[in-house]
Design goal:
This protein is of the alpha/beta class. Helix content is 30%, strand content 29%. The longest helix has 30 residues, at 3-32. InterPro entries: DUF4136.
Length: 210
Amino acid sequence: MNRISRFLLRPLAYSVLGLSLLLGATSCTTAARVGVTSDYDHSVNFRAYRTWAWYPQQRADTEGGPAQGYESFLDRRIRAAVEQQMGTKGLTMVEATASPDVYVAYSARVEDKQRSVASPYGPYGYPYYGYGYGYGSLYNRGYTTEYKAGTLILDFIDASRKELAWRGQGQAQVDNQTISEAEVQRIVTSILGNYPPQDGRPTSSQAYRE
């Protein structure tokens, strides 16, 4: 291989290396981050809650399981994750007819979204050298990527007052049209990381959890 060929192939090699490194870092970061928000009724004494039950009029999830008289995979995953995490919070699950302190309801959805990225890198993860023709300035404007976002909302309803006491929401990038077991567990754990609310914590704040 002559000197000119090696010179021309060097940017390509750097580009492929940059692509590999960026994709690896991006996939790990994306898979780990959950956007979390929460809000609550400041008049509620959450420490007084000891027992909980699923809200008896739970709506069907996005796969329509409960409406058909059976549990969908997503419904089963969400319920298992919530029940496990509620136990770690010291709350005991009871039947809805056993007069619990609080009811829990959820809603879940997966949506197609777009993300705008302002970067000197192109959509393939490596800088455009341009070879003196000005391509770099074109790609410095950024680019748009498409992805699927899984959103889960958990509502805590005060059983005695029949009023919403606490709401937590988590959103993360997912791989498919449904939310996998690992993704559900990660989102639920992140949401309930904000429960019980503490005085001085913002009522609605955006946070990213690993």
